[in-house]
Amino acid sequence: MGKHQLEAIALLCSLLAVPALAASEAPRPRGVGPEFAKFYKSPDTFTCISNPSLTLPLAALNDDYCDCPDGSDEPGTAACSHISPLSPPSPPTNPNPAARFNETLALPGFYCKNKGHLPLYVPFSSVNDGVCDYELCCDGSDEWAGVGGVKCEDRCAAIGKAWRKQDAERQKSLGAANKRRRELVEAAARLRREVEDRIATLGAQIQGQEVKVASLEAELAGVERSERGRVVKGPGKGGKVAVLASLAKGRIGELVESLGRVRGERERARERVRELEQILATFKEERNPNFNDEGVKRAVKAWEDYAARDKGPDSDPALDRDLDEILKSDAENGLNWEEFESTEESDVEVLYKFEEYLPKPLRDWVDQKLRDLRVTLIENGVLAAPHSDSGDSKAVQDARQQLESAKKDLENDRKELTSHQEDLQKEYGPDNIFRALKDQCIDKDSGEYTYSFCWLGQTTQKSKKGGGHTNMGNFVRIEKVTVDEDLPPDGKGLGSGERYSLVYENGQHCWNGPNRSTRLILACAEKDEIWKIVEQEKCVYRMEVGTPAVCESAAASGKAPAAKDEL
Amino acid sequence: MVKHENFKTCTQAGFCKRNRAFADDVAQLSSWASPYNLDPSSVSFKDGQLSGTILKTVGKAGETVRLPLTVTFLESGTARVTVDEEKRQKGDITLRHDSKARKERYNEASKWAIVGGLEISTGAALSRDTEAGSTRVNYGPAGQHEAVITHSPFGIDFKRDGETHIKFNERGLLNMEHWRAKIEKPAPKEGEEPPPETAEENSEDESTWWEESFGGNTDSKPKGPEAVALDISFPGYEHVYGIPEHASSLSLKETRGGDGKYSEPYRLYNADVFEYELDSPMTLYGAIPLMQAHRKGSTVGVFWLNAAETWIDVLKSKGSKNPLSLGTKSVTDTQTHWISESGILDVFVLLGPTPKDITHKYGELTGFTAMPQQFAIAYHQCRWNYVTDEDVMDVDRKFDKFKIPYDVIWLDIEYTDGKKYFTWDPLTFPNPKKMHNQLDKRDRKLVAIIDPHIKNTDKYPVIDEMKSKGLAVKNKEGNDYEGWCWPGSSYWVDCFNPAAIKWWTTLFKYDSWKGTFANTFIWNDMNEPSVFNGPETTMPKDNLHYGNWEHRDVHNINGLTFHNATFEAMLERKKGEVRRPFVLTRSFYAGSQRLGAMWTGDNLAEWSHLAISIPMVLNQGISGFPFSGADVGGFFGNPSKELLTRWYQTGTFYPFFRGHAHIDTRRREPYVPGAPYTEIISQALRLRYQLLPAWYTAFHEAATTGAPIVRPNFYVHPDDDKGFAIDDQLYVGSTGLLAKPVVTEGAESVDIYLADAQPYYDYFDYTTYVGAGYHTVKAPLDKIPLLMQGGHVIPRRDRPRRSSGLMKWDPFTLVVVLDNTGNAEGTLYVDDGETFDHEQGAFIHRKFVFDWATSSLSSINIGAPGAKTAAYAKTMAKVRIEKVIIVGAPASWKDLSKVGVSEEGVKESKAGKKVELKYYPAQGGKASWAVVRDPKVAVGKGWKIEFA
């Protein structure tokens, strides 16, 4: 109907523009709209509109008997209302067995003039059925026969007035909505500019950071070089290694023991979980779902959610094998503590030890020479660097720390830059408008739940009877969808045409069903508001949302704003 | 899958096990004399009734138990046999456990089931040819029926025209378990062998006489063993039908094992059977203990009026009627064994001789189908649940938007405030008035569910009143029985109690149950009763009802009493506004047809469940409760779009046509599946609406004659022995419409069985099928295999409207389908579709006759006028016949372009008006047909169209 209505309105507008012409028209047969008037002008016969081979006497027009296979002889009655692909099929009436008449209704419906309001077509099946269809036919002309005593007074004056008032409000609201949208667009542009500015700033910052990192790297190299030759002495005989080994041995012993104990506890816990899961699975299997005990149902549902969640591998056999290995005795692992406890001195350390027998000045001299030699040897790869358990010296550490910190800053700035650059590539809808709304959230109470969505964020549901928020989906993309809905008088509905839609997927898993998902469908309104929430099928939700964000775009795409022209 | 462990087998029901074992023992004996003997000296006959005393010999010493017998001969030709037990009757027994239960055998089943047909025959008389050892009574029309009562052992043969059709106690399985005191045997001492049992103690197995346990519930059985059983044979009958409700074939199967046979008896014990099993004798939600036996040329029946748990064994034996007459066809005898847990023996014997006689005479006894409101036979849209009032209004709007007709939208339990009936959930249904108003705009209705369990909770006046007035069912101690159902802890209203009915009525008044209106109607569910924590999901058998009858005695009637209370309440919602009630029930008993419709309970969205729905609905039809249907789409699970579409095509032939779905399923309203399914489903729905005049006429026939609304082959063609077992195709009323719905996946055609030599025409394109036997009819997804048998006139209304109420003033189309002699006739019944004015003549009842000899179609009044006839006729004066289609039109009409039309009450000068005729010749296997263009004759008047 939507299209026809629009056409009708367009036609009406042109008629109003030339009232003189309209007035001079011969009266049309009942139910004929002005655009079809030309088919009803012949003074003595009527030719079926879509089947011109069939000509009828004028008396057959609107005589409440369907003659034309396309229904065009009954524009003012319900006699041809059965012509529809939804009706049970009937045998062909074309005398030529190879041909079939055009059996599609030639007219959009019964034309209600609705003087004082907008003319509209009402379906033929609603003509003379005893019900005044004021929504489409405010003049009551659809019940002209008065079947069963029905009388449909002309209510166009009142309905038209109310409509005009509402329309004015809608227009006003639309104005406000458009204003609000412009603000949003500005805000979005501002936000985008901020991002762009930030990108510029970051660019400069990163250059500086890169220079800083380079110089710190050079500095570190220098410090390391000077520190590398320094000999480190052990604190006493037997060496640190032996002490460490004995400590480590003790510690590892403890760890192995604890690991064994924890592992045992884990196995027992796992066994209990398995048992509980088995109980719950049986419980779910054997309960009678028809009994619908709320408590039981909640428990089963929670169990289903639990069972559906990604549990990860029950136990990784490789990890378990590793544990087995770890728990073996050290000897089995090829670890001989004794070797470490009675340390043999390394060749390098022996080299140093010979110094101890020299007099102090000579010792210093030798020391210096040796150090240089050692550095040369090490630098030339002749000698391995000494194993030192005390790590780097303070100076090296400080230098390294500075370098690391500078690198980190650089890394962070680069990350931020990438993220902002990506953000600029992201789809934010027409005029980037959703940028201005991002992460703002809207709630609505509907029955026992409070629903909410966050722009480009998440949709959620919360029961008034308690319990937490259920995630109904995370934003994934913007789409366009075609809708065809009746528009309530307050304009709070989707109407007909192409609409923006935000798709939220991969919400919480549903008992016996998919992961929850939500589709928002947006239509122009003065403020952000959820109009309606329906669960279309199990755990697949649809929210009809009014927002100024999509207002002008509708106008820009050549469509009249939803709220404007349809009643 | 059904949970077998929740429901008893015969072996787990003591009385069934005992009687089956008894039958087995008897079968093994070479000679067996039943211990029941009619004392000849006690026999008397007075006013159409024979009385006497049967003596049952018990024990070796020959003591006897006195069992009073009556055989009543009714004017209708039906005989009624009752046997009671004197000692219990007189209260001369003691009950165990200090039980408060009544001592008599339950004798009030007839109070609930029987509403008429009990006029005593004035012509019945003792036969003059007397024979020693028997008493003979002649009765029935022209004395053609005869009851031969054999004294020793007791037995009765029922004869018609000299031939025996039904035999009582032929096999000697009559068994009235007489009252006896429990003899407590000393328990054997620890470590000692129990003493050897004496021969006498050994004679009977007492193990199931006293307490019995099942599934954690113990039945205290204060009255001890009290079963009543009888074998009933149908000599020469191969087919028996009836005893619904079972998910089984129409023709009953044998039940004592073997290939393709059941090993359990058919069981009647109303229960909430979850995910029920197909092709099974398991019990379901309702019980009608009427069985009919059929063979070529004869149909007879028995109606076993007992409300207790009942099991029925069926055996068939092939044998020659006369072993010496070689060459004659062997005949099959059907033997049945009826076993009930308690109550008196009370059996009606119906001697036919046609299927129509059985349904008519049974209907006279238990009542005919109530004439429903028009909307009730249109399409119902249900779901567990439409979750808010907005949801309801949205679905309502969508039907209009998609131009799909529907009449009624339903609310399951979630509309209530916490499962408290007679309340609305304030969060989800804040505005029931707005919702009702929107529906009423298109003359649509709302059905809300009301169940018999009342929530045990605070601040709920309904439970407070019920408890304070003492109207709840009691437990064995006599306190209010508490069980578990949807609301959790609940009590059950005891509708056996007249005071409970009165109280129940008050709850439905518009000013009591706020938010209900003239277009609110009711659905009664869970009235078996379903008790989640009870034995077999129902009440303990030792619970007590009004009058201190044990639940065991009345169980199968329980659903009817609740349905009845709601029906009564619907009549009294508002003074001066009496409309025909509509109440759907899940549980039922003989007589429930007077109160509303039933459906086949919680089925599954599977092809097999679609297939079984046809025999189940057919069986309801021949068993006196024809206003029946299965949930379209299947209750549990999600049907494929193909299955959903085929189900709508099948559902369009259910007398009760409702789509329904479980709460965990996806939405599946007709507009949901999309192209091409939505379009095909819409066609099926519009077909139902187009044929509503034919359906309404069929309902009227059911309401006045007891005839089924959809009929199996044997009923329509009782002499076609090849078609006696056919239960997958159906006839709509007397219209000659024959449908064979597609019930298999991916089908492209079906084989439809034609019983006679008449031409059958495809409903949609007039393709002709002639010849008895199977014919292949193309059936792609968008095609319903539907034929019209030659010889009928089918009334239609072709204008698609949003609801049936909006078709009220539309003109009619008549489809005249000529038979092979060129004749046709049919009827049409029309009334206002809502009030009781039709009882005062406010209706149109016409017969249309196409006569070959005079080549004319006439409309003849067949209704008796009443006080409101004229006023109604006035309202209908403008409703006309707009079109007459003649299928199989003679070739001689090729050149006929005008026909003459005359109408009653129209001046002579105008009487000879001519209207146009269009003739379409036969081509490509399709019949010739002709259309009379708008004869403009009133549907309520006499008229004649002359074709020559």
From TrEMBL, chain A:
Q: Does the keyword Signal apply?
A: yes
GO CC terms in record: glucosidase II complex
Q: Where is the MRH domain?
A: 439-553
- Chain segments annotated as coiled-coil in the UniProt record: 174-226, 259-286, 393-427
**Could you say which residues form the signal peptide?**
1-22
UniProt keyword Disulfide bond present: yes
Q: Which GO terms describe its biological process?
A: N-glycan processing
Q: Which Gene3D superfamilies would you find in this protein's record? A: Mannose-6-phosphate receptor binding domain (2.70.130.10)
Keywords (alphabetical) are:
Coiled coil, Disulfide bond, Endoplasmic reticulum, Signal
Query: What is the official name of this protein in its record?
Result: Glucosidase 2 subunit beta
Automatic annotation (TrEMBL), chain B:
Show where the Glycoside hydrolase family 31 N-terminal domain sits. 68-313
* Biological-process GO terms, alphabetical: carbohydrate metabolic process; N-glycan processing
Its EC number(s): 3.2.1.20
The record ties this protein, via PROSITE patterns, to: GLYCOSYL_HYDROL_F31_1
Offer one Pfam family short name for this entry.
Gal_mutarotas_2
**What is the source species?**
Mytilinidion resinicola
Query: Acidic residues compositional bias: what residue ranges?
Result: 193-209
A cellular-component GO term for this protein? glucosidase II complex
The segment(s) forming the Glycosyl hydrolase family 31 C-terminal domain are 706-794
Pathway note? Glycan metabolism; N-glycan metabolism
Catalyzed reactions per annotation: Hydrolysis of terminal, non-reducing (1->4)-linked alpha-D-glucose residues with release of alpha-D-glucose
Q: What Gene Ontology molecular-function terms does this entry list?
A: alpha-1,4-glucosidase activity; carbohydrate binding
Q: Which UniProt keywords apply?
A: Endoplasmic reticulum, Glycoprotein, Glycosidase, Hydrolase, Signal
**The organism's place on the tree of life at top rank:** Eukaryota
The main place the protein resides is: endoplasmic reticulum
Q: What is this protein called?
A: alpha-glucosidase
Stated family: Belongs to the glycosyl hydrolase 31 family.
Q: Which residues form the Glycoside hydrolase family 31 TIM barrel domain?
A: 369-698
Q: Does the keyword Glycoprotein apply?
A: yes
What is its subcellular localisation? Endoplasmic reticulum
